[in-house]
Amino acid sequence: RKVDFPKNALKVVREGMRRVVDGGTGKRAGKDLAVELCGKTGTAEIGKGEMRRKNTWFIAYAPRENPTVALAIIIENGDSGGGTAAPKARNILAAIFGERSAE
């Protein structure tokens, strides 16, 4: 089934994802990469009391203008999407685009 979106909706989403990487919670994903990317972090708290934990994620695409790669990474028992998942995504993207890992 086709879903119709307003013509500017994709532009708004892409701009938000650019901002996440350019200075927001996902800035660690783009740190020192030669390629520009867009992404979004996320953190979900699950469980109660002593069983409470966080699952974190980061989604991205790169290069920003003409994407050839899309990535989704999920880390169980992480701290935050920006602190746990984004740096790991950065290292994966560095390997894909032939750069050195930050770790």
Notes on the protein architecture:
- The structure is a single chain.
- The chain is an alpha+beta fold and 103 residues long.
- Helix content is 34%, strand content 26%.
- The protein has helices at residues 9-23, 27-30, 81-96, and strands at 38-46, 53-62, 69-76.
- A 3-stranded antiparallel sheet has the order 1-2-3.
- The longest helix has 16 residues, at 81-96.
- The model has no long low-confidence stretch (mean pLDDT 92).
Secondary-structure topology with pairs:
Blueprint: H1 9-23, H2 27-30, E1 38-46, E2 53-62, E3 69-76, H3 81-96
Antiparallel strand pairs: 1-2, 2-3
* Overall mean pLDDT: 92
Estimate the strand proportion.
25-35%
* Overall 3D form: globular
Radius of gyration: 15 Å
Q: Give start-end ranges of low-pLDDT stretches.
A: none
Distance N terminus to C terminus? 44 Å
**Most strands sheet:** 3 strands, antiparallel
Q: Tally the beta strands.
A: 3
Helical proportion? 25-40%
- Specify the number of helices: 3
> What is the element string, with H for helices and E for strands?
HHEEEH
Q: How does the helix and strand content classify structurally? A: alpha+beta
Order of strands side by side in the largest beta sheet? Answer: 1-2-3
Keywords, separated by commas or semicolons:
3-stranded antiparallel sheet; alpha+beta; 3 helices; 103 residues; globular
How would you summarize this macromolecular structure in one to three sentences?
The protein is 34% helix and 26% strand.
